[in-house]
């Protein structure tokens, strides 16, 4: 087993007034050559968008972009003609492929939006761009992991152009749960959304990240009521 720990207070931070963002990996003006990515996981941004503000129209290409709202509503508009709102309990995928432009706005005038912005390198380049979003409320389970993303269109959750699987879990204090990797050559990056957990005697708190690889399975123990996101990804960029 090999692992890396990224404590919450070691992340990059940028406060633009309307946007308060923490970066687990190098992003924009924050550059850390030792934290460029975890396998094909390139970006993990923990964003807070002020009321009525947002990201103006901007382009992407050859990247799988996943958004997971944690609080509030975010309005999405893109060059494919999609106009939608993603909310807490949803997951969104923007497969940029040959190129797509989009905007994201906090549609609420009185409250902020909190969401995770995640970028994954695809396993195929220059594909037709694609957009999708679903509610994951019906997938939620207590005290066990539930899948929200995979490479397969007929599986639970959204699908992306990569051999990656995302799962979420909400656990009561003292509960333990085992995660078994879909591919033994993959690694898993665990991001603690709430509470505290331990993995192999390593204690992780809110917004800590823990990457683990060269392992088939591992156990998560909740030190308190906890919520987390697991991102299983290839460790080699193709």
Order of helices and strands: EEEEEEEEEEEEEEEEEEEEEE
> Class by helix and strand content?
mainly beta
Summarize the amount of helix as a percent range. Answer: under 10%
Rounded mean pLDDT score: 96
Give Rg in angstroms.
Answer: 17 Å
The 3D shape can be described as: globular
Annotation field: number of helices: 0
Q: What fraction strand?
A: over 45%
Largest sheet: 7 strands, mixed
From the N-terminal CA to the C-terminal CA, the straight-line distance is: 23 Å
Write up what this structure looks like.
It contains no helices and 22 strands. The chain is an all-beta fold and 238 residues long. The protein has a seven-stranded mixed beta sheet, with no helix packed on it. The protein starts with a strand and ends with a strand.
In short:
This protein is mainly β and 238 residues long. The protein has strands at residues 2-6, 12-15, 19-23, 41-49, 54-60, 64-71, 73-78, 83-87, 90-95, 100-106, 113-120, 130-135, 145-150, 158-159, 165-171, 176-180, 186-194, 197-199, 202-204, 209-213, 217-222, 226-234.
